[in-house]
Amino acid sequence: MEKILDIQPLTMDKSGIKKGSMKGEVAVVTGGGSNIGLGIARSLAWAGCKVVIADINSETGYAAEEAINSENELGTALFVMTDVSDELSMKRLAENAFRTYDKVDILVNNAMNMRLSNTIMRSTIYEMDQSYTISARGVMLAIKEFVPGMKRRRHGVVTYSATAFNHPMGPSIYCAGKAAATSLMMSLANELGPAEESGIGVFTFIPAGVGRLDPEKLKEMPKPREGDAMADMPMEMPGYPGFIPPEDCGAAMVYSISRAKEIHGSGIIIQQAFKAMNWQFPKPETVPEGDMERLGDRALSLIFAYMGFGFPDQEGPFRSLGRSE
After folding, report:
1. Which residues pair with 29 in a beta bridge?
2. Which end of the chain has fewer CB atoms at under 10 Å, N or C?
3. Segment 144-161, tens digit of pLDDT
4. Which phi-psi region, left, alpha or beta, contains residue 223 (left: φ > 0; alpha: ψ -120 to 50)?
């Protein structure tokens, strides 16, 4: 099982969250059978949640269910083979979740095909369609299945593993699909209104630089071609000797879920969650000082109009964003 999943011990004890403090909550994690999704699912279970793992890969999905149940108790996790882009498959997921646990309190939209990661000019229209179908369509279908129950009970959390809307490494269609889903999430936050009134917290979470990649092994691999997605990927993340482990990402996501009503309508980068938790980094000397820059609440709807420097003879409130002096 460990060989199939490549898991390491959880790090939730560093999060400040009490073990079992989310007892009684039920979470659905799409793409929960491996990597980031599995780290989140395991961390939610540690915090006391029942967890429904939705994944298209049955081998890793059943292994994830077994792993979580062995770490906690039988019945903590349920795997449901799911294609998030297929409406009937998502309805079966919901039926299984409600039949087993009666409700869903937390929806973590995480599923995505990482192979859809190349430049626009090297990608096909089919790959673009797949990116949009898994990200945007999958998020929409999940929202339609699980948010109505949250609204009736005036209780819930909806989050999404987002990414940059453009990226220097070039996974353009990957970013495009996720940008559409991020827009859906922020629109949902606006439609539901203040979390204090609806009882539902909605936010996006960017798990930048998370994975089980060994920088030393990557150095031995053939050098990527110019323009490839991995060509300019940094080998070390701030505070780490390499990539951020999925277990640490799970802790950061669960911490953010625990404060969902406070960050409703926001986008959170994993490093912001680490800072809020006073995280114990393995290499604290590499963590930059100061707050990470945030934008106002209208920036999301306007950011595509304000990106770049604009006309050279005009000045504006976002003029300095991204400028390299």
Report:
1. 53, 108
2. C
3. 999 999 999 999 999 999
4. beta
Identify the H or E element spanning 101.
helix 87-101
CA dihedral 262, 265, 270, 276 (to 10 degrees): -20
User: What is the separation of C-alpha 151 from the centre of its chain, rounded to a whole number of angstroms?
Assistant: 22
Cβ-based neighbour number of residue 139 at 10 Å: 27
Q: What is the DSSP string of 114-139?
A: TT----TTTS-HHHHHHHHIIIIIHH
What is the third-level CATH fold of 2-294? Rossmann fold (3.40.50)
Q: How far is CA 208 from CA 18, 66, 167, in A?
A: 25, 28, 12
Query: Which amino acid is residue 310, in one-letter code?
Result: G
SS3 311: coil
Amino acid identity at 269:
I
Sign, Cα dihedral of 111, 71, 238, 228: negative
Query: Whole-model pTM?
Result: 0.88
Written as six digits, the tokens of 65 are 């269910």
**CA distances to 11, 62, 76, 104 from 50, in Å:** 19, 15, 5, 9
For residue 62, give both structure tokens.
């059943």
- Whether residue 243 contacts residue 211, with contact meaning beta carbons closer than 8 Å, is answered with yes
Pairwise CA distance, residues 242 & 233, whole Å: 11
CA-to-CA separations, 319 to 276, 308, 309, in angstroms, rounded: 29, 8, 6
Residues across the chain: 325
**C-alpha span between 186 and 16 (Å, rounded):** 28
Q: Where are the domains of the chain?
A: 2-294, 296-325
